[in-house]
């Protein structure tokens, strides 16, 4: 088999792999939407839940720094 055929086969396999992963990603995205819809139907606020998920991904130090800056800005705007 020539190098050209090997390269084309590798490329095709990688593209097929990406396509499968994209489908899985779409499925996971749909599952996440379903969870937020269920939460909303139960009375929870999906927007706040998304914020909590984002905050939980952060390192504690980064989260504390962000919260401190937010408090400083709120105080400066008289919103506290």
TrEMBL record:
Q: Which InterPro entries does the record match to this protein? A: GapR-like (IPR018753), GapR-like_DNA-bd (IPR046367)
Keywords assigned: Coiled coil
All residue ranges annotated as the GapR-like DNA-binding domain in the record: 7-78
Superkingdom is: Bacteria
Q: Name one GO molecular function term.
A: DNA binding
The keyword Coiled coil belongs to this UniProt entry's keyword annotation: yes
* A Pfam entry, by short name: GapR_DNA-bd
Q: Which residues form a coiled coil?
A: 4-31
Q: Does the keyword Coiled coil apply?
A: yes
- NCBIfam families under this entry? PRK13694.1 (NF010247)
HAMAP family in the record = UPF0335
The entry sums up its family as follows:
Belongs to the UPF0335 family.
Q: Could you identify this protein by its name?
A: UPF0335 protein F4U95_03605
Classification lineage: Bacteria, Pseudomonadati, Pseudomonadota, Alphaproteobacteria, Sphingomonadales
